[in-house]
Amino acid sequence: MFTAGRGRLVALGAVVVGAAIALSGCASSDPLSTGGSTAGAGKTLVVGSQDYYSNEIIAQLYTQALENGGYKVQQNFRIGQREVYLPQLEAGKIDVFPEYIGSLDQAVNKGLGKTAPGGTADEVYTDLTSVLPDGLKVLDKAKAADQNSWTVTKAFAKKYDLTDIASLKNVTEPITVGGNSELETRPYGPTALKSKYGINIAGFKAVEDSGGPLTVKALVDNQIQLANIYTADPNIKSNGLVALTDPGNLFFPDNVAPVVSKKVDAKAAKILNAVSAKLSTADLVKLNDQSVTDKKSADAIAKAWLKDKGLVK
Fold first, then answer.
1. Which of the four, 2, 6, 39, 154, has the lowest number of CB atoms within 10 Å?
2. Contact, 256 vs 288, CB < 8 A?
């Protein structure tokens, strides 16, 4: 059985929310087509997402690409964090889910009573393929990565000459950490800061928006001094924040990759891999910025990107 890894906003035991089935035809001449116009016809795949705007955008990329390839897709978006959706995946109730390889690898290994070995993105990916439960597999990883980070304000970094996590030892005032409540038990959370880097934390403040505007405001207002914010979040740049480097590799490489069930056939896998092949970290930051700054819907953001990359017409 899975246990949690990378946290996203939702309470344990949340009810999985269903969505309407979206139907689309297949155009055999586009870059994602692998054959006849009836390939994938009649097969419904359930695509899920975490309760996090960036993950929903990626889920929309998968959804629209699959629909373009002739598949019927049922959306099951914003369904929570790993405690909720991984059992759904394992039970075969979700067929496609955008994941982050390092955090998932840590979660699965923890569920097996093991410690994930870490390493490069390729090494983490290889380990993940070896520990996923029967019936699930991870497809190609994208170049795009959305890393966990320990982040501070520019003023706080300047005051204490902070460049990496280890340099937090320079801080002479109490440090309060902010993030989703689940962060307290994550393998890179406050306990790991102490064991890995020798950083003492004065307290923890739960801010339940996955490093979003509430977390950023708490950081800027000095209610917290250290926050867990994902590196593809445009709030880092727009608010002049500093994501501290991680020389001790506390955080694993978190390249984006779809985790899929047995219902995902070779044609669907090829479609999803084509999306991953085009998705870079710079792309992910731009997609996120369109959501955060321009307030565009995940559906519209995904549609424009897929067309721009020549993946759909």
1. 154
2. no
